[in-house]
Amino acid sequence: xxxxxxxxxxxxxxxxxxxxxxxxxxxxxxxxxxxxxxxxxxxxxxxxxxxxxxxxxxxxxxxxxxxxxxxxxxxxxxxxxxxxxxxxxxxxxxxxxxxxxxxxxxxxxxxxxxxxxxxxxxxxxxxxxxxxxxxxxxxxxxxxxxxxxxxxxxxxxxxxxxx
Length: 163
Known about the structure:
Number of domains: 1
Structural class: alpha+beta
Order of helices and strands: HHEEEEHEEEEEHH
Strand content: 35-45%
Helix content: 25-40%
Number of helices: 5
Shape: globular
Distance between the termini: 39 Å
């Protein structure tokens, strides 16, 4: 009986380790592939980072794009940190002042949060691709609508394939 119990515990631990290894199989090298070229924009070499601390794991890939005085700083973030974007601002949130605009809504089936400074034409757009994956775009010297159109060029459907 004790032998069977040890065997069951061993199999259970093996299954758990296998499941955990699958859930963290994403690397920053893989994420960098999703940082596409934008026609008419100069793109720097993509950068990446993996950070772990106990059960916390975060994998990021970033790339900066410029065109004239306009800048995009794009980050794809995978892991526990992505979950904070799912709870921070509910869909339907909207706030507007003379100098700022912020709202969260569904776009193409994804939760999208936009924070825009009207005075200096800067902001951040975050797209919750999945509970573990966020696309974040910081932009400078452009309207939020132009930045959103550029954000859509990162093929949200293709990003869904990252598991």
